[in-house]
Amino acid sequence: MLSTTRVKLSVMMFLQFFVWGAWYGQMSKYLLTQLHSTGDQVGNAYAAFSLAMIIAPFFVGMIADRYFAAQKVLGVLNLLGAVVLYFITQNTNPDNFFYLILAYCLTFAPTLALTASIAMQQMSVPEKEFPGIRVLGTVAWIIVTNIVGYYGFGDKVTIFQLSMYSAVVLGIFSFFLPNTPPKATTSTSFSQILGLDAFKLFKDRSFAIFFLSSVLICIPLSFYYAMANPSLTDGGMQNVENKMSLGQASEVIFMLLIPLAYTRLGVKKMLIVGLIAWIVRFICFGYGDGGSGEWMLYLAIVLHGVCYDFFFVTGQIYTDNKAGEKIKSSAQGLISLATYGIGMGIGSKLSGIVLDMYTRPDGTKDWLAVWLVPAAIAAAVLIIFVLLFSDKKRISAAKDELVTGPL
Q1: CA-CA distance, 296 to 286, in Å (whole number)?
Q2: Angle at 195 between CA 192 and CA 201, to 5 degrees
Q3: What is the residue-wise DSSP string for 100-138?
Q4: What CA–CA distance (Å, rounded) separates 331 from 335?
């Protein structure tokens, strides 16, 4: 890859996640403090993103990939998104906010797949070259959340203004990216996007249990994204956005540990570690505070790397190995639709209902009660997974070792 191409793709990935990180984690605090939204309205706002994630693959696979150069679609979507973000900055009605954020998410969600597609089509060995460029997205998220935290506008409309200006920059910059023409001969079919080809994998009970667990664990994941920021703020933690960026830093560290852990532990144990980490972090969120219990809040934040990488990234590897070459894309598409679309959509809606349920008459929240709900869901998923999932390859290897001795 030419060095100029690498630089352009790195800048693209940086801007992509800068735009997203500016508002996503802080949106709930903005809605609760500035628009005086109910918990249900906050949950609906995050559910809008999940709804857009369900629609996005159809747009990219059925339209963008067939008829238009990807970099031009990326540019147009970002400029349209900036326009919608402008209207969001002018809105003061919590009911109208849902429709505006849904409109914005419909422009933003497809860009996640488009940036990955643009990058990978410029690479000869994506599995080696892509991580070095994708990590710029995580760096961007860390930087933008620290900017928000340092200047203290996590609960202000400024988060959407920052995203709007960044989207304009990325929109214009996109037209100068390497040309990524439509793939007329390899367009994705409707059934591939739905992942229908991968339904045969459900004949394997362990894969079916993994799939169900993946969908269910996205419910507590939504609680984290929607409620962590206002919960930490109410708990007395200062500079919340800065400290929450430690979660992304831990994500990078544990991502690098996955190859070693995968070899030593195997799929089942890694997924179990991830599920246990979910339970521990929600308990820490519930019992921690900004005083003597602040260490619990730090632990809850830092555990994000274990929670996300050891379950979702390991799950992607497991799915990839299980599916094989023929239905690999369909299997990953099915998992993405079910988790980020259905699972997180249900979780976002439920998190808002739970928040309203545990909001006292004076407007304060019983955060301990709120966090015990996702902790209980994660515990239920853990029990189901431990009892019903088996790592057959791991068991087979153990039997071979008993017969032949260790290699």
Answers
A1: 9
A2: 130
A3: HHHHHHHHHHHHHHHHHHHHHTT-SSHHHHHHHHHHHHH
A4: 6
Q: Per-residue b/e over 199-218, b at no fewer than 16 CB within 10 Å?
A: eebeeeebbebbbbbbbbbb
CA–CA separation, 125 vs 100, rounded Å?
Answer: 39
CA 11/CA 391 separation, integer angstroms: 40
Higher pLDDT, 67 or 156: 156
CA dist., res. 228 & res. 237, Å (int): 11
Q: Which two tokens stand for residue 43?
A: 């949950």
* Cα torsion angle, 183, 339, 111, 253, sign: negative
pTM above 0.85, yes or no: no
CA atoms within 13 Å, Cβ hemisphere of 111: 29
Whole-angstrom distance, CA of residue 347 vs CA of residue 35: 22
Average per-residue pLDDT for the chain? 86
pLDDT in tens, 26-84: 999 999 999 999 999 999 999 999 999 888 777 766 666 677 888 999 999 999 999 99
Give the tokens for residue 123: 């690479």
User: What does each C-alpha distance from 368 to 41, 69, 287, 288, 339 come to in angstroms?
Assistant: 21, 49, 6, 9, 26
